[in-house]
User: Which sequence fits this backbone?
């Protein structure tokens, strides 16, 4: 399975951001494409959602309501054990966030059977 790309501009350190009193963020999930698209193509709805999230992130970038992180709650692909589904349908969409969103972190929570994986970029 290919790793999600590291952010081009990581979040500021805790010391640099301790003055923040409020934090704006985006939460979404259930981006799996179903039996016909996962592992075959980029998920079209997740791609459109990413377009909109990046638009909102850019609009708010230099405001008090700047988006600081995105929480993706899981159900990213139909079968989490199938690397092809991650590599083809999910990871390229998330790479857009880490590459194009500026100082925004992605937090992904995925539950597979009894294991819970939490990743932060």
Assistant:
């Amino acid at each position: 399975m290919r790793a999600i790309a590291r952010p081009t501009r990581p979040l500021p350190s805790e010391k640099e951001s301790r003055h923040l009193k409020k934090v704006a963020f985006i939460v979404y999930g259930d981006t799996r494409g179903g039996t016909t698209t996962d592992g075959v193509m980029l998920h079209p709805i997740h791609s459109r959602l990413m377009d909109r999230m990046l638009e909102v992130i850019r609009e708010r970038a230099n405001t008090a309501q700047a988006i600081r992180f995105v929480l993706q709650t899981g159900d990213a692909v139909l079968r989490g054990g199938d690397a092809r589904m991650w590599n083809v349908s999910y990871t390229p969409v998330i790479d857009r966030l880490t590459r194009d969103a500026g100082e925004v972190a992605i937090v992904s929570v995925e539950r597979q059977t009894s294991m819970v994986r939490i990743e932060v970029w």
The longest strand covers residues 105-112. The mean pLDDT is 82.
